Request: fold
Amino acid sequence: MARDDLIQTEGHITRSLGFGNFEIKCQEGHTIQAKMAGRMKKHKIKIMVGDRVKVSISPYDVSHGIITYRLKEDRSSQGNA
Reply:
């Protein structure tokens, strides 16, 4: 399947299932299971519960996906107190 066929969505990690698998609450409101993409493992990108991520979902099985990107937090809104 080509990368153009995948459904792109954003969500946040609600639970770590171990071995690079996570439970993600998508913006649309449904929950899916996703695993880290190989490129993220190769570059040792850490993902933790509460992080916002971009997920690619197969149109054939919308309950599983691949985490392709970890979205950066906006540090200006946190403030220094």
User: Anything to note?
Assistant: The first strand starts at residue 7 and ends at 18.
